[in-house]
Predict the 3D structure of the following.
Amino acid sequence: MGQCGVSGTLGVSFASDKPVIALGDDGFSMTMMEMLTAVKYSRPIKVVVFNNSKLGLIKIEQELMGYQEYGTELHNPDFAKLAESMGALGIRLEDISKMGEAIRELIEADRPAVLDAVINPNEVPASPL
C-alpha cells in the first residue's frame, strides 16, 4: 500500500461512482489517518491490509541487496478496531476459513471499511520488483 495507497484510493473515489479498493501490507500505518477523511466525506473506500507485522517489501529489498533484515518488524495495532474508532467498518480476519465471509462483508459495506487480514510473517509476499 505504501505511502499513497489509502490517499490514492480516496482520491479516485471522488472521481468515480464505482467501488475503489486498496490492497497492501502494514504500510497502511503510514496513511491510515486518511480513513478519517473517508468517513468525513462518506467515501465508501475499501482497504485490505495483509497484516504480517512487517514492512515486507522493505525486507525483500534488503535481502536482494545482500543485507540482513533490519528494522522491518512492526508492532501493529488491531487495524479493524482502529478503523471502528474512526467511524469506518473494521473487520479482522485471523481464520482463513472465514475469508469469503470477511470479503463479502467488506464489499457490501456502505461506508469506508478496513479488512485487517492477519497473515504469516514468514510467508514471502509477492514483490513488484
